[in-house]
């Protein structure tokens, strides 16, 4: 049996990689994927704690998070495609929507 601390450590590492991806990278698609990685890290924590506490509450929360993430993917990818189509780049630094 794998100890709970291993799952929580893996979740923390995945969340940390996601935060680094958001802070360091300037490509909108990479930032978007990093946010999804952070959501999956939180889902792993929910599942781990749900299994440890022997309740289904964490697993129910995971289904809600996955539903919101699926909606986010649909809207987020559409926005990224429109940005790339209008400006020809997905680099956040090159796109400044506040200036005309």
SSE order and pairing:
Layout: H1 4-24, H2 28-53, H3 57-87
Write up this protein.
This protein has one domain: Helix Hairpins (Orthogonal Bundle), CATH 1.10.287. Helix content is 78%, strand content 0%. By secondary structure, it is mostly helical.
Based on the model shown, name its key terms.
single chain; 100 residues; mainly alpha; Helix Hairpins; 3 helices; 78% helix; 0% strand
Question: Can you summarize this structure?
Answer:
The protein has 100 residues and is an all-alpha fold.
Q: The CATH topology is what?
A: Helix Hairpins
Largest sheet: none
Helicity level: over 70%
Strand content: under 5%
Structural class: mainly alpha
The number of strands is: 0
Overall CATH class = Mainly Alpha
End-to-end distance: 59 Å
- H and E order: HHH
């Amino acid at each position: 049996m794998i100890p709970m601390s291993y799952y929580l450590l893996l979740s923390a590492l995945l969340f940390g990689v996601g935060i680094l991806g958001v802070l360091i990278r300037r490509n909108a698609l990479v930032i978007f994927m990093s946010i999804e990685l952070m959501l999956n890290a939180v889902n792993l924590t929910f599942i781990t704690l749900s299994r440890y506490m022997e309740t289904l509450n964490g697993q129910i929360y995971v289904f809600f998070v996955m539903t919101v993430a699926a909606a986010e993917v649909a809207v987020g990818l559409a926005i990224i495609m429109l940005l790339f189509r209008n400006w020809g780049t997905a680099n956040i630094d090159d796109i400044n929507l506040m200036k005309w």
